[in-house]
Amino acid sequence: MTKAGSKGGNLRDKLDGHELDLSLSDLNEVPVKELAALPKATILDLSCNKLTALPSDFCGLTHLVKLDLSKNKLRQLPADFGRLVNLQHLDLLNNRLVTLPVSFAQLKSLKWLDLKDNPLDPVLAKVAGDCLDEKQCKQCANKVLQHMKAVQVDQERERQRRLEIDREAEKKWEAKQRAKEAQERELRKREKAEEKERRRKEYDALKAAKREQEKKPKKEANQAPKSKSGSRPRKPAPRKHTRSWAVLRLLLLLLLLCVAGGLVACRVTELQQQPLCTSVNTIYDSALRGLRSHDILRWVLQTDSQQ
């Protein structure tokens, strides 16, 4: 066995055997990393140092059979501490450990364990016991291994449960995404159909308008011959001299009124004895006789119908 006598010197020069005693060497985490250079070391004593943690490289010493880490300031062991599968004797007395890594359950060769004077979790402390003698330390190793195996099983079960929950959540999320995508596809399909229907209606409307435009000239062409054929009589064109005739008739009416007034004056008043009235009365009597014979009336009616 090689034992370190002081802090000085090269640590690699001290690690020249399979049994290494580095107790009371005032080591910290940095020089402990150099232990990885001796992967075939079987016995290692690191007790009574100021170690607060072990580097992950330390777990590469897979040939260790006996390890003494007592009277340090370790707060936890490396997560892959279970790689030390050949470890049979482990002394963790008087540290600051509360729990052990789950990989501790892989130390199937462990036969002796001391966890006294650590602020252990109450459940773990009850399982470990007092370890006051060889027998109790062996029982401690056995019970702690069984406890850590149960913890490992529980954690694995919990991991599987969470994994299953995550899978279910992922499936629900995927189902929700599929439903959302299907809804979006249906919406796009409906919008596309509505757009197609709108365009079709616009096309039909334009086509109908075009047909109406094409029919209008035909209707006008068909209506023109009807008016020529006489199926519907056309109103006679207004006479060119209608206004002249109206003026003439008005003058004639005025003249007749004057004549009638003079006639009444000549026949009723004292003026009938005057020569002018005598002539007027004679003309009146002649006209009256002519009207009675219908010749003048017939002439007037015939003239009006010809006009």
From TrEMBL:
SMART domains: LRR_TYP. InterPro entries: Leu-rich_rpt, Leu-rich_rpt_typical-subtyp, LRR_dom_sf, LRR_domain-containing. GO terms for cellular component: endoplasmic reticulum membrane; nuclear envelope. It is a single-pass type II membrane protein. It is found in: Endoplasmic reticulum membrane; Microsome membrane; Nucleus envelope. Pfam families: LRR_1, LRR_8. Keywords: Coiled coil, Endoplasmic reticulum, Leucine-rich repeat, Membrane, Microsome, Nucleus, Repeat, Signal-anchor, Transmembrane, Transmembrane helix. Residues 175-221 have a biased composition (Basic and acidic residues). Gene3D superfamilies: Ribonuclease Inhibitor. Its main location: endoplasmic reticulum. Residues 175-241 are annotated as: Disordered. SUPFAM superfamilies: L domain-like. The chain crosses the membrane at residues 244-265. The keyword Iron does not apply. Residues 229-241 have a biased composition (Basic residues). Required for nuclear import of FGF1, but not that of FGF2. Might regulate nuclear import of exogenous FGF1 by facilitating interaction with the nuclear import machinery and by transporting cytosolic FGF1 to, and possibly through, the nuclear pores. Can form homodimers. Interacts with SGO1. Interacts with FGF1. This is Leucine-rich repeat-containing protein 59. It comes from Sousa chinensis.
